Amino acid sequence: MTGDSKQQPRPDATGDRARDALPDAGVPASNPDAGAADVAIRVRGLVNQFGSQTVHDQLDLDVRRGEILGVVGGSGTGKSVLMRSILGLRPPQAGTIEVLGADALSRDLEERRHIERNTGVLFQDGALFSSLTVGENVQVPLKEHHPDLRDSLRYELALLKVKLSGLPANALDKLPAELSGGMRKRAGLARALALDPPLLFLDEPTAGLDPIGAAAFDRLIRTLQEALGLTVFLITHDLDTLYAICDRIAVLADKQVIAVAPVAEIEQVDHPWIQDYFHGPRGRAARDAKAHASGAH
Ligand SMILES: Nc1ncnc2c1ncn2[C@@H]1O[C@H](COP(=O)(O)OP(=O)(O)O)[C@@H](O)[C@H]1O
Ligand SMILES: [Mg+2]
Questions:
Q1: Does ligand 1 have an atom closer than 6 angstroms to the CB of 187?
Q2: Per residue in 100-136, pLDDT tens?
Q3: Nearest of 281, 279, 94, 124 to residue 201 by alpha carbon
Q4: Rounded to whole angstroms, how far apart are CA atoms 66 and 72?
Q5: Which residue of 153, 169, 199, 292 sits 20 to 30 Å from the alpha carbon of 255, by its own alpha carbon?
Q6: Residue range 21-43: average pLDDT?
Q7: pTM of the model
Q8: Contacts of 235 (CB under 8 A, 6+ apart)
């Protein structure tokens, strides 16, 4: 992982249109009065434990429809475990999770399929099948959920998603190992978008990319989010990403989501981790890059 590439500010991604269109957030992690229609994901009282280690203790979180929510927190604070719980991949010890109105913890097959069909996921390690071409990888969810599709149509759909993700058409026949890191992320994104899901989960998508590649990937996420009306749950430690494309930031610390708000409000929250993170040298650089980009017009 190229940790030091994160030190440099990089070109800003996209504008603030979607962010400005959203109502103001307020710092509490959840608002019990928020209308159910506006909430894509609702987590209440989540408890996750591994043996004697408690990762989440009564965690609450709302993800609003149509927002890019940046999820941050120190290493090991439970960002990936939270994502896996929301996806129904890790049953928690307690709590409730609703995804697009369905119970994410239900053992009912129909309810599970509903969530699966409506979510695309880019896991931290990319998780492409190494023995399948990019095109075959993108077709995996199509085969699973739409087994009746003709081969030619499935191929066309995979090609469309590959292009949508900013890869050249000839990437379709390449193996993951034949691609650069940035291209592999795009291939993973193409597979995540295979079923046209309204909900997209990204776990550290720009980790390991150089600053230019990371900025380009951010722009792609924002463009797709706006064009397709996606709700995006974006785990990242990339400050540039937070400033460039996130509508709100959720901070994981002390086993809970301690604040959810636009980044300008989060910076002001009086918590040691938040202060260190946002007001350290890297935070300053990212903020300056953002201010420079917004002030440029
Ligand atoms: N399958 C597992 N078995 C035991 N401990 C786990 C497992 N998955 C995660 N953990 C622990 O839970 C904590 C949170 O992990 P994770 O969500 O991956 O953190 P991060 O915020 O860095 O994504 C870590 O301390 C990790 O060791
Ligand atoms: Mg993680």
A1: no
A2: 999 999 988 888 888 999 999 998 776 799 999 999 9
A3: 124
A4: 19
A5: 199
A6: 61
A7: 0.86
A8: 71, 72, 79, 80, 83, 124, 202, 203, 204
- Residue 105 contacts residue 255 (beta carbons within 8 Å): no
Tell how strand 199-203 and strand 231-235 pair up.
parallel
Cβ neighbours of residue 143 closer than 8 Å, sequence gap 6 or more: 149, 154
Whole-number Å distance, alpha carbon 48 to ligand 1 midpoint, is 10
Distance between CA atoms of 278 and 284, rounded to whole angstroms? 7
To test ligand 1's pocket by mutation, which of 49, 53, 55 has the most ligand atoms within 8 angstroms of CB?
55
Q: According to the per-residue pLDDT averaged within each range, which of 2-6, 207-211, 212-216, 245-249 is highest?
A: 245-249
Residues contacting 94, CB < 8 A, separation 6+: 45, 46, 47
Say what the pLDDT of residue 295 is: 63
> pLDDT: is 292 or 19 the higher one?
292
Neighbours of 28 (CB within 10 A): 14
Distance 249 CA to ligand 1 centre (A): 21
User: Mean pLDDT over residues 199-211, rounded?
Assistant: 92
> How far apart are alpha carbons 35 and 39 in whole angstroms?
7
